[in-house]
C-alpha cells in the first residue's frame, strides 16, 4: 500500500479508533509513539494506553528539558500504565558539539539533540504516532491524520482536535496537567527555547520566539533508512 492508499483508506479515522486500527491491524509490532511529555501529551498517551499500554513510546531527552517535564514523564508513565517508554538521548559527541549551540544556531542544535537521536531510535518501525494538531497553527494547519513522510507513515490521531476537545478530555479522564501549564506554557520543549505564550498567540508561539523557526525538525526530516543511511 502506498502513501496515497494509507490516507484514502484510514484518513477519515481519528482518536482511539485510528490508534486501534494502526496498532492492531495495519502495523502490529511495527509502530511506536513519539512524545515530548509536554502540555497536551497526556491526551494522546491516554488514548494509546487505553488501546495497548505496551506500544513503544519514544521520549527524547535532549539534555535541555525542564525538570518539570522529566518529573511529568514519570507521573504519566505510572498513572497510565505505559510499559515500554524508551528514553532516547543524543550521542555524546553530538551533545558535546551542541552544548550552547541554542544561542547561535537553533536548527543545528535541534538536529543534534532531536533529529539524529530520533532517527536512530525509530529504525525498525514502519509507522509513528504523534500528537500534532491543526490547531497548533503554522505548518500544522493542513495536517492530516495519516500521511507518509521521511520513509514512515505518520499517524496523528488528534490532528483535527481543537483546544476545547483537548481540555474536555483532560477533565473527563482526570489527566494531570504538566506543571508548567499553569504558568502560561502551552507548548513545551527545551527550556532555552520555550517561553509562556501571550494572550491571543497560538499555542506554539512560545517556541523559538523571535525567530522564523516553528518546528524542531523531527516531523519534517528524513529518518534513517533501514540500511543506516544518513538523514
From TrEMBL:
EC number assigned by the record: 1.8.4.10
Extent of the signal sequence: none
Upper lineage: Bacteria, Pseudomonadati, Pseudomonadota, Alphaproteobacteria, Rhodospirillales
Domain Phosphoadenosine phosphosulphate reductase: 31-196
Active site per UniProt: 216 (nucleophile)
Catalytic activity: [thioredoxin]-disulfide + sulfite + AMP + 2 H(+) = adenosine 5'-phosphosulfate + [thioredoxin]-dithiol
Protein name as catalogued: Adenosine 5'-phosphosulfate reductase
InterPro entries to which the protein is assigned, alphabetical: PAPS/APS_Rdtase (IPR004511), PAPS_reduct_dom (IPR002500), Rossmann-like_a/b/a_fold (IPR014729)
Annotated keywords: Cytoplasm, Iron, Iron-sulfur, Metal-binding, Oxidoreductase
Family the entry assigns: Belongs to the PAPS reductase family. CysH subfamily.
Required cofactor(s): [4Fe-4S] cluster
Sites where the protein binds [4Fe-4S] cluster: 109-110, 190, 193
GO MF, one annotated term: phosphoadenylyl-sulfate reductase (thioredoxin) activity
Organism encoding this protein: Magnetospirillum sulfuroxidans
Principal location listed in the UniProt entry: cytoplasm
Cell compartments where the protein resides: Cytoplasm
Amino acid at each position: 500500500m502506498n502513501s496515497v492508499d494509507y490516507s484514502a483508506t484510514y484518513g477519515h479515522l481519528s482518536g482511539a479508533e485510528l490508534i486501534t486500527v494502526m496498532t492492531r491491524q495495519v502495523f502490529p509490532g511495527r509502530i511506536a509513539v513519539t512524545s515530548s511529555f509536554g502540555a497536551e501529551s497526556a491526551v494522546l498517551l491516554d488514548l494509546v494506553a487505553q488501546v495497548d499500554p505496551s506500544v513503544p513510546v519514544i521520549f527524547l531527552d535532549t539534555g535541555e528539558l525542564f525538570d518539570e517535564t522529566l518529573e511529568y514523564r514519570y507521573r504519566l508513565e505510572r498513572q497510565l500504565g505505559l510499559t515500554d517508554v524508551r528514553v532516547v538521548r543524543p550521542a555524546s559527541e553530538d551533545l558535546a558539539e551542541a552544548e550552547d549551540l541554542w544561542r547561535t544556531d537553533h536548527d543545528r542544535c535541534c538536529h543534534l539533540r532531536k533529529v539524529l537521536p530520533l532517527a536512530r531510535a525509530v529504525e525498525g518501525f514502519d509507522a509513528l504516532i504523534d500528537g500534532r494538531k491543526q490547531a497548533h497553527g503554522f505548518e500544522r494547519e493542513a495536517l492530516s491524520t495519516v500521511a507518509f513522510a521521511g520513509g514512515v507513515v505518520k499517524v496523528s490521531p488528534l490532528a483535527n482536535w481543537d483546544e476545547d476537545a483537548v481540555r474536555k478530555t483532560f477533565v473527563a479522564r482526570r489527566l494531570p496537567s504538566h506543571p508548567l501549564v499553569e504558568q502560561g506554557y502551552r507548548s513545551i520543549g527545551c527550556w532555552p527555547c520555550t517561553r509562556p505564550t501571550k494572550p491571543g498567540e497560538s499555542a506554539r508561539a512560545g517556541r523559538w520566539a523571535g525567530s522564523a523557526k516553528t518546528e524542531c525538525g523531527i516531523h519534517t526530516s528524513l529518518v534513517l533508512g533501514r540500511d543506516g543511511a544518513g538523514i
